[in-house]
């Protein structure tokens, strides 16, 4: 039996003035599947995520999350439902410690206000939960360091920690490895792969590095000029002539990416 559909997008369009950034995009993401969205610069990937995650209203079309019509719901409502777009690095508080950055969203999820001035011991269960998340990401040893002192790759991992603290069921990651060096990229991808395999979370990731996409994604969707050009397994996408054409050949070769 095939996995239930966690996200269903039906004929979504989005215009900016006269410019059509998305034109009738439909797709379905099965629960638990690691899916990637690829496409040349300006194809509409970020706009698509903005529509799904509630930042933009679609001009046309509908979005369903776990069978529920969520079209036009704002991001904070979607987070509560379990649909989350990765936080940008600007959402991290650099002057706070790693632990505090994870405690804040955890407290919100527990419906309580976290106080940085109250002793941590009085908020023991939150701290334990935060430490478990940090442990999972290999950041436990850095929990008391101020975020501003961390390496770039570790800062980006804190975004993932914050995402996990929100207990999502579907996570949209828009270029999670942007600006990372090769080692940081590999660590991030390994982590996403592992989380996708070991947790109940479904990941939908955009990524420019084709080597990464072809090595981890189970299903790949290709956007081109606002339309869905193709979808399939990495092998199917690699062999698709229309996709190769959109990428002008070369960059689809994993070894060159
Ligand atoms: N708020 C906006 N106002 C006007 N045009 C926009 C807006 N957001 C996106 N666009 C346009 O929509 C098109 C798609 O942009 P988008 O950022 O979604 O592409 P992308 O696939 O994410 O590209 P990249 O790979 O470079 O991140 C681009 O031509 C962009 O200029
Ligand atoms: Mg983008």
Give an account of the 3D structure.
By secondary structure, the protein is an alpha/beta fold. The protein folds into two domains: 172 residues, P-loop containing nucleotide triphosphate hydrolases (Rossmann fold, 3-Layer(aba) Sandwich), CATH 3.40.50.300; 80 residues, no CATH class. The chain contains nine helices and ten strands. Helix 3 packs across helix 4, helix 3 runs parallel beside helix 5 and helix 4 crosses helix 5. The radius of gyration is 19 Å and the shape is globular. The chain starts with a strand and ends in an 11-residue tail after the last helix. The structure holds adenosine-5'-triphosphate and magnesium ion. Adenosine-5'-triphosphate binds next to strand 2 and helix 1. Magnesium ion binds next to helix 1.
In the residues, how many domains can be counted? Answer: 2
Mean pLDDT equals 89
CATH superfamily of the largest domain: P-loop containing nucleotide triphosphate hydrolases
Strand content: 15-25%
- Which sequence of strands runs across the widest sheet? 6-7-8-3-9-10
Categorize the overall geometry: globular
Question: How are the SSEs placed, and which strands pair?
Answer:
Layout: E1 5-16, E2 19-30, E3 35-38, H1 45-52, E4 60-65, E5 68-69, H2 75-81, E6 83-85, H3 98-109, H4 124-136, H5 152-165, E7 170-174, H6 182-198, E8 202-206, H7 210-216, E9 219-224, E10 227-232, H8 234-239, H9 241-246
Parallel strand pairs: 3-8, 3-9, 6-7, 7-8
Antiparallel strand pairs: 1-2, 1-4, 4-5, 9-10
The structure holds adenosine-5'-triphosphate and magnesium ion.
